[in-house]
Amino acid sequence: MAYRINEECAACGACEPECPNHAISEGTEIYVIDPQKCTECLGFYDSPRCAKVCPVNAPVPDPARRESDRDLLARFQKLHPGLEPKGFVLRTENDRPVIALVADGSGDAEGQAALEELDDHIRRQFPDYDVVWAVQASYMIQGLKYKGQTTQFKRAVPLMLADDLLKRLAAAGRTKVAMQLFMSGESNFSKNAIKADTLGMDVKYGLPFLAAAHPENELKLIKSLEPLFAGDGKTATVLVGHGSEKDFEYNEWFINIDKYLREHYKNVFLGTIHGPPGTDFVASVKASGCDKVRFVSLMMSRGGHMPLDIVNDTNPESWSRQVGLPAEPVDSFSTNPALREYFTSSIRTLLGQFKS
Ligand code: SF4
Ligand code: SF4
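Above: inputs. Below: predicted complex with iron/sulfur cluster.
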């Protein structure tokens, strides 16, 4: 699709001389692109030059002008008769990477709605790519199928594991897959997705937000959750991680975050449903003198845990009953801006790796 320059343009003029098609000119207030001359730099460069040189990311694809590589090639030939397009190979639809999002999944309608919202977000960011999903928790698939549900979201995305998704993509002739692990941390679910047979396709993996390769995300996560910490001196805040009894590496994140919270914030703790630190926070909340508690989910999508195991007056084992204080739940971790930004930039990096 042709590019356009959005209102972020600072009218610095840096892009104008870079355009190989002389498609950019100074408009009344900002610079403008003539769509009849823009080829997305096809025939000259691997990626749009204007977007590359712009200091404020103002040149963006214009979704109103979707064009195939054939259309862009025809435009190149019309603009530059007799000139050979440089480094150009006509891509087929199958060569275009497909974005595969892999999540634990959710058995709860609100959790699925949160995943659908994430799906919308990614589709808006990458309008030129197919977006497909896998649900990596097999028990979740079984549970949903038992309830008669074979798809997730209103968009009717079929329920399947990463293995099956890759088989489908290979059978459809796709050759490149950008697989983003849409989980909060490195669990066995994400490790199993990476182990799935790629069937000869070129698959690039985007790690979960909390991954050993990105230790800096731990602090980013805490900072982005800060606005949800009660901070009124009377309400304790407990972050709710899922955790695992079998996968200690996964829980190390939660142990570290709990330690950091205890050292740097007053009355903010972290608990895990499975594995350590578990419910160590209960004694701390009781000793804090707080008269309320807020439970903030760290699970990517809400499952049954929040209403069943965390804030539930009728379940004697629930966390709210264990602390014995009025409790409020805060869900929708998937809308956390730090997480969204991380996933978007990770997918962009993966797609960029196919070009190099
Ligand atoms: S994408 Fe390339 S051809 Fe299109 S306006 Fe930008 S620099 Fe020019
Ligand atoms: S480089 Fe960016 S800011 Fe400068 S004129 Fe071009 S679009 Fe505008």
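The chain has three domains: 3-79, 93-212+337-355, 216-333.
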